[in-house]
User: What shape does this take?
Amino acid sequence: MSSSSNQEARQANEERWCALMRAAQDGDGAAYARLLSELLPMLRRVVHRKWRSAQDVEDIVQDVLLSVHAVRQTYDPRRPFMPWLMTITSRRIADAARKASARRANETTVDVMPETSAGDEAKNPHDSSDDQDAIRRALSLLSPGQRQAIELLKLKGLSLQEASAATGKSVASLKVTVHRAVKAMRLNLKT
Assistant: This one.
């Protein structure tokens, strides 16, 4: 393809995508779906050129599409579409680079994985019963409200909203109660 036909194709895409985005902003779901499906292969190419790890490309592209969806109302149809889209894309690539850098900074490589055991198999039955007795004793020393909060949230696995509905306490009150109960249990388990 010649340089002038490439330019014409880019201009045609720009105009079509701008029109589709304008229609999407006006509530046309079909136009929005078409726009996203047309953008997908182009975004994959752009991200792949700038990102070395092929396994992360799809995640970054999905982040771009989510961002487009979240901020689609900020697009001004009187302005070109591609600069708006490429700004979002470059920011998501930069976000991915920051996350990867932070992840690498906190990772440690080892030659041999240390041997570990899963759960109670490594404990003898006596150790396990001692742990359970200590936890029961620490629970019994809590106030009735703290014990109820621990039982609902930590032992039964209810959400804060479910526990709030069951107890009539606010979510904030339950958070404070559980925090204080856990702190008290830690102190009781040390003694």
User: Anything to note?
Assistant: The longest helix spans residues 81-106. Residues 125-190 form a domain with the Arc Repressor Mutant, subunit A fold (CATH 1.10.10.10). The CA atoms of residues 150 and 156 lie 9 Å apart. The chain has a mean pLDDT of 87.
